[in-house]
Amino acid sequence: MARPLPLLLLALGLAAAAKSPYQQVLQHSRLRGRQHGPNVCAVQKLIGTNRKYFTNCKQWYQRKICGKSTVISYECCPGYEKVPGEKGCPAALPLSNIYETLGVVGSSTTQLYSDRSNLRPEIEGPGSFTIFAPSNEAWASLSAETLDSLVSNVNIELLNALRYHMVDKRVLTDDLKHGTTLSSMYQSLPIQIHHYPNGIVTVNCARLLKADHHATNGVVHVIDKVIATTTNTIQQIIETEDSLESLRTAVAASDLSSLLESEGQYTLLAPTNEAFEKIPRETLTRILGDPEALRDLLNHHILKSAMCAEAIIAGLTMETLEGTTLDVGCSGEELTLNGKPIIANKDVLATNGVVHFVNELLIPDSAKTVFELAQESEVSKSTDLFRQAGLSSHLTGSERVTLLAPVNSVFKDGLPVIDSNMRNLLLNHIVKDQLSSKYLYHGQKLQTLGDKELRVFVYRNNLCIENACIAAHDKRGRFGTLFSVDKMLTPPTGSVMDVLKADHRFSTLVAAIQSAGLTENLNRPGTFTVFAPTNEAFQAMPQGEFNKLLGNAKELANILKFHVADEILVSGAVNALVRLKSMQGDKLEVSMKNHVIHINKEPVAESDIMATNGVIYAVNSVLQPQASRPQERGDEPADPALEIFKQASALSKVSQRNPRLAPVYSRILARMKENSAGF
């Protein structure tokens, strides 16, 4: 019975999805090389080196490995060879034993040493083996001292070294699972396998170059290094390396030793003594004396999985044990962390992971003071301001605070002069308690060190505290949090009426509000947005219209209510267009154009004058509700005589061509005369 087509397609899809990352990039290379004939693979070669890679689609189009340009070359896919006079690589490599296969796949030096060490009979004879064979270049890259120590003891050291590269069973790339170990044929010592999502496979951090070469008695994989046995844990490496003495002390103080000697697969970015010496003594003493900060510092240097240098051919983000992320990348031969080439020694293999020595200490935000966070951010000018005002102690100690720091662009014209008023204002930029912006809610009240109460406003496109809106993600330090904000905060000083009365620009408006009986409304607790006409706005009105308005309390109240909305809208919440319902009932349209707020298409003279019960915008025109605006021509009521005249004019021409319409034309003329007599 035939299988249903959907189930067959599903099975094929699952089979495709089950391919290992290595097989996926190999398949991609086959597709890119197929125009050159059968079994041709496209590989990317790093210019100026012999390093070649099968790559995925993204890297193919980027044409870069570790930021360096590559060229495309075409060669036989693993397991195939050319035939003179034919296109591509149509012939499979002859199937022979492992010893003979080594000479065919570019590992003739391994073949030579297996002959010298008396390994040859074993890998020529019956059995099922896997050998991770170092390439000829890998052997040549060994130091003369190392190579001599191996070759001069051919019956012992060289044989042991080669048998450590072997497994007594057939293992293909699909069997090389990430994070697994294989028992070698030398004292069953483990070989660590890592199979990364980008298709790179490493064996004790040596990159697999040519894989899955079948032999009659096993399989050959060519690797780019001679691998060595590994018996030390990460903790033991720390304890024996002289350059990690400072790290050793820090680990002992943090009780992380048990983790670093336990089973697992970690990457330790081990800061050297030099890295610790670069940190200001005061900062280092503070962190080492604070168990929580020290733990965060060390966990920030430990990645959750083993990452060999050879697996990194482009930038990627890695998660640390602290829960933060690091950008791990490469630039040519150098590994980079957060874009900086600070890795001094790479791929020191341990039984439970890999160690890279770094010459800079990576201090996470969680181990920093708020002052340190601000100094390293786009609010560094704010730190100068707080320091000049003598407020640094609030930002460097163990006080739980949140700093609302204006971004540097706020001070493009220079820092303000520090006086008592400015110092008080800066105190109101420091909120009591350590906050997180994602937990703030609309209407929340925050207490400052200056004893002011600040309100939180949550909008669709912004999160604001009074008139200042958060301009970047939080930075959460050891005891405090940094909020970068887009302007200096202006805490409210009184109700809407208090603010209007205190500003001479609004004296006419204050009188109008009092005349209309709205004073109590704007003094009570609430959430008002007031578009306040200045004296200039009232002076621009025709005198007769102005007098008429003041003489009609009901109309005056109606006009004034049109300038007030019953919700708080600060300028940072205005992106394109926001519609507010006025207290008069009609809609107000607030928009942003060329960085200027407009209300009903009229530019605002000043934004975000904060009051305890609202916000005020100064406008230089008196806004008119729809019903109070002069009617446009299209909205005028129809004039009966005019309409009749229009009809008559049109029909007179038609009736001249069509006698049957003449009576209609006569009746229209009669109606026009009757209406004219009425006017």
From TrEMBL:
GO: which molecular function terms?
Answer: cell adhesion molecule binding
Q: From the UniProt annotation, give the residues forming the signal peptide.
A: 1-17
Residues forming the FAS1 domain are: 95-227, 231-362, 366-489, 493-623
- Give an example GO cellular component term for this record: extracellular matrix
Q: Does the keyword Secreted apply?
A: yes
- What role does it play? Plays a role in cell adhesion. May play a role in cell-collagen interactions.
The record's section on PANTHER family has: PERIOSTIN-RELATED, TRANSFORMING GROWTH FACTOR-BETA-INDUCED PROTEIN IG-H3
Protein name, UniProt field: Transforming growth factor-beta-induced protein ig-h3
Gene that produces this protein: Tgfbi
